[in-house]
Amino acid sequence: MDQASASRTRFGLAFLLAAAGAAAALTPGAAAHDRTDGTAAHRAPATAPPAATDSARTVSAWLPYWDDTEAAYQDALRHAAQLHTVSPFWYRATSGTTVKGQHGAGNRRVIDGLHRAGIKVVPTVNEAMNADTMAALFHDRARRTAHVSALLRLVASRAYDGIDLDYETMATTGTARMRDRVRTGYALFADELCARLHAKGKLCVITVMARTGNSGKAYDYVRLGRAADRIRIMGYDLHWAEGSPGPLSSLAWYEEFLRYATRTVPRDKLEVAFPGYGWDWTLGVKARAGHLTWKQAEALRRRKGAAYRFDTKSGTPHFTYKAGRAVHHVWYQDARGVAAHLPLLKKYGVRGTGLWALGFEDPGFWKVLRGE
Question: How far from 92 is each of 166, 211, 240, 310, CA to CA, in Å?
Fold first, then answer.
């Protein structure tokens, strides 16, 4: 399967499933909604991220806005001792100078509550623009700087500790040649953005697709790893909603992308994000698979009386059930699967982990990460 075209899962979750509309844009001079050329030298942030070798807090997690935000927030508070960062999935760049807030973006109660619990708040921004548009923006010095300034205004609009860039549309659209231009331009952009964030004592986090085969080539791991404080690898959607049924991740796949990542990015900057969800495919039907959190998947399995099966080759659970004449195949991830994958992170010296997303996961996920 071609992951380069498959990795738009998160947009499917955030924008196909979301019922809420976008809030006001953060255009030049505007505040965030209350609902809420050359390579710059890398400068260490005034407030550095917890080093993977020194901190007991080794987990970051995204907080969704379209699901039960309050439940996700409470989930974060329950596990504050393990979380160093929460990234509310709140913002979307719709042009070089416009960043829009999703429903609830900038919620001060959530931000302040996470801070009181000792958790950094680094909101996520994704982009609506395709590869052609982003390549042109990144390679135009004035437009690139204007986009950096728009993101800095966002960071300054609340008591944020930095920003997480999850730019995936540009990595899954356009031609391979255009994605090459995205890769070189995005590296220039990251140099400038991260340097300016560091000058303000803020964190620069970049989320990337796993680099395997033809996947993830829009990201220059070497350059991004130099510029950013953390590189988050999405360790999921090996099989995805619009493809054939199969595990969201596998041991062989983790081995492949970890081998590449640890050759190109300092290990203490790497985080591997685990899925707390799954997909429900209807066999023989080309329709998009249904999204299920771990909680929903387990409830469905029990309701249908389906046997729990664990695929030792991939390290993921799955089950099959019938709805009328239709046969469904569900693949997802649970604590047992995460436990099967963790030795590979240890093998490659990566201690940083992540979760997509708060409120989705098997509660045992946290015990597994504690080594219980």
Answer: 9, 24, 22, 37
Strand ranges in 36-158 using DSSP code E only, listed in sequence order: 59-63, 83-88, 91-93, 99-101, 120-121, 124-127
Q: What is the C-alpha separation between 350 and 271, in angstroms, rounded?
A: 7
Asked whether residue 173 carries a pLDDT value surpassing 60, the answer given is yes
- How far is residue 71's CA from residue 66's CA, in Å, rounded to a whole number? 12
Beta strand pairing status for 309-311 and 230-234? Answer: unpaired
| pTM for this prediction | 0.88
Which domains does the chain possess? Answer: 3-277+334-369 (3.20.20.80)
Cβ neighbours of 332 (radius 10 Å): 27
Q: Hey, which residues does 317 pair with through a beta bridge?
A: 310
Which element (helix H / strand E) includes 311?
Answer: strand 309-311
Q: Please state, in angstroms and as integers, the Cα–Cα distance from residue 309 to each residue in 82, 113, 130, 303, 332, following that order.
A: 29, 39, 39, 16, 11
What's the rounded Cα separation, in Å, for the pair 357 and 164?
Answer: 15
**48-56 own/partner pairs: CB under 8 Å, 24+ apart:** 48/229, 49/84, 49/85, 49/120, 49/203, 49/229, 49/230, 50/84, 51/268, 52/267, 52/268, 52/270, 52/350, 52/351, 52/352, 53/268, 53/351, 55/84, 56/81, 56/82
DSSP 39: P
CA separation for the pair 291, 170 (Å, rounded): 23
Tens of pLDDT, residues 44-96: 333 444 333 335 788 999 999 998 899 999 999 999 999 999 999 999 999 99
Does the N-terminal peptide bond of residue 261 adopt cis geometry, omega within 30 degrees of 0? no
CB 170 within 8 A of CB 127: yes
